[in-house]
Amino acid sequence: MERELWALLMRALRDVSRGQHDTAYHRHATALIVRVYLWSVLHDRPIVWACDRRHWTPPTRPQTLPSQSTMSRRLRTEAVQQFLQRLGRRLAGRLAPAWFLLKLMDGKPIAVAAHSQDPDATWGRGARQPVRGYKLHAIIDGSAMPCAFEVQPLHVGEKDVARRMIPRLRGAGYLVADANYEANDLHELSARQTHRLICPRRQPGAGLGHRVHSVERLSCIALLEAGPRVGNRFGRHLLHLRRQIETSFGNLTSFGAGLTHLPPWVRRLGRVRRYVHAKLLINAARIRLNLA
Hints:
Layout: H1 2-17, H2 30-42, H3 47-50, H4 68-75, H5 78-92, E1 102-112, E2 122-125, E3 130-140, E4 148-153, H6 158-165, E5 173-176, H7 184-192, E6 195-198, H8 215-225, H9 230-241, H10 243-252, H11 269-291
Helix pairs in contact: 1-2, 1-5, 1-11, 2-5, 2-11, 5-11, 8-9
């Protein structure tokens, strides 16, 4: 499985590298930097491990390997971030027909030890208890990669991140989320992106007070809280489908190279973002491999 997974990743990396133009200043191409980094993340080892020729098999080993200091410096550059984004678009694949009008939004906590010295890891709400760490915020649309995602410290609110992710949506359809995203401005923002936000209220049936509410929010409340009508059943069915994003998060952690935890050498927000991005790419390759 690992051999086939790596082969698929390398095919995608070669396709993306064809449009990559590196400056003569750099000795190692951006594609090589990403290749070495993916090798370390795939095996859950630090970058310095992947810079040693002994830790590669002959068919997979590049002709030259950068040093650990070169890797650390180049991974922080904008060129590498753009390469990872293009690689994600290459691995995303086509939408499944059942997902054509449906997108799901949620967050997944990524905990670190409570005694960690990482200054970027903050306390927040985890699975039924306070935890310290980060959170992966994502919008999925049935393709192998999320159509939008961010990694933030755990204390950053889901609504704040949603305000940055929703403008990245393309097309039209329904954006389904839980009650944490129920806000007038998010309904309006989704409507401007030709998406209808479907999320329940924390207290269904409660009054609305005297403030002015978004027409989109009032329409969502009517859809979900009206009597047993066709519209109500449709809204409830959409909320039932929201569980699929929890399944997707579970699948992200359920294989050997998945996002099971943050290893001790992955600390500080920049490193955590790169690491999670690489894990999403590896998971996308696994999904594509399973569908082949």
